[in-house]
Amino acid sequence: MRPISLRRFIALxxxxxxxxxxxxxxATEPIRRPKARPKDIHSDDILSYSFFQRPVLTSKCTRxxxxxxxxxxxxxxxxxxxxxCPGVPCEASIIANTNISTTKVxxxxxxxxxxxWSWKKMHSARxxxxxxxxxxxxxxxxxxxxxxxxxxxxxxxxxxxxxxRQGSDFLVEFGHYDETRPEVRADDDRNWATKKKNIVIGPxxxxxxxxxxxxxxxxxxxxxxxxxxxxxxxDSKPCTESEGFEEKVRSYKFSLALDISRCRxxxxxxxxxxxxxxxxxxxxxPAREDYERVGPPNSFIHVNDFTSVHELADYIKxxxxxxxxxxRFFDWKKLGTVVSIKMADLFATxxxxxxxxxxxxxxxxIGTDVTTNRKVPDWDEWWWxxxxx
Length: 389
Ligand SMILES: *[C@@H]1O[C@H](CO)[C@@H](O)[C@H](O)[C@H]1NC(C)=O
Ligand SMILES: *[C@@H]1O[C@H](CO)[C@@H](O)[C@H](O)[C@H]1NC(C)=O
Hints:
The protein is an alpha/beta fold. It folds into two domains: 46-173 and 346-386, Rossmann fold, CATH 3.40.50; 175-340, Rossmann fold, CATH 3.40.50. It has helices spanning 6-18, 21-28, 43-53, 100-104, 119-125, 214-222, 245-249, 269-276, 288-294, 309-320, 323-327, 343-346, 349-364, 379-382, and strands at residues 62-68, 81-83, 91-97, 108-111, 131-136, 160-163, 175-178, 197-203, 227-230, 252-258, 280-284, 301-302, 337-340. It has a six-stranded mixed sheet, covered by helices on one side. Helix 6 links the parallel strand 8 (197-203) and strand 9. Helix 1 packs antiparallel against helix 2. The N and C termini lie far apart (66 Å). The structure holds 2-acetamido-2-deoxy-beta-D-glucopyranose (2 copies). One 2-acetamido-2-deoxy-beta-D-glucopyranose binds next to helix 4. This is Fucosyltransferase. GO terms for molecular function: alpha-(1->3)-fucosyltransferase activity. The chain crosses the membrane at residues 9-28. InterPro entries: Glyco_tran_10_C, Glyco_tran_10_N, Glyco_trans_10, GT10-like_C_sf. It is a single-pass type II membrane protein.
């Protein structure tokens, strides 16, 4: 280190008394380190910086994300869709295909569970620093086990998690409770039971494969309370159980929001659609705590709270005959609003931007070896063991 003269020492010292930022300058001044890069950086700087941090994959400042899928996701295709994300200096680009040539020049890959891939091929095509995203909106029971890397690649595959599980890097939400926006005024004392059919609505018992005896449960409950069933998805494919549900559910006091799997955090659209539509969902799926974590207080009935279907039916009948009790399930509307999120919204460009922002932030982490920075959840524990069937 070069010696610092006394005058210089005093001058620097005085300046630095007032600002913390100066400490950095002071410490780095004598050894001429590269200047800290400002937050709002010109795109050319990113390129020159990238030369020593990671390979430059594209000739201009664009960050490309590959959706590894052949199905039509919101119109993304082989033709890149380009847009800008707030806080990300480079242009964002999305290409959807399963072409390994695209992988070789992409900054990130989102693996769609319905697509197939060879881990070996993907690893050999992967440029240094390319981010891999584990994506699933389905529970473990509904998707291929092949999405989980083999032991050999266990610690060297996905960087980010994009699922319905709490703690995901990018949470795939089917809805949420917004506590900052009351839906009705505090003095709103409407009767939420008015003009509603006193019967419950539920999915047709035989409608879709479920990992538990959902069909039997519906049939059993039907012996005690009338249940209107609906069949969604008759013409349109692919579709979710929620299609056709939303219009019907409004006119019912209760809905059966029975998830196809009983997996931690796996709470699908019907729960949120019911709440947003002014219907009390009767839920079965993960434990009560999981619903409480994402839903409004006292807003649903959990099947597990009853020892038998008969007991549940009695409770439904009690609420059906007592508007005062029934209305307590809507008190939360004076405190907040439930927003349900459609599948199509999940992949709107603004909802993909958090991935580009995160890639940008990680790229900016000076001196971090991106390849040793992978996310390592215990896949057995975190994914496979999250369901009780
Ligand atoms: C994959 O991408 C490359 C490069 O863009 C292209 O030449 C090739 O035709 C593509 N392959 C398929 C099967 O689309
Ligand atoms: C993955 O990383 C964990 C924690 O660092 C380590 O215990 C485990 O042995 C690694 N597994 C493999 C297959 O390398």
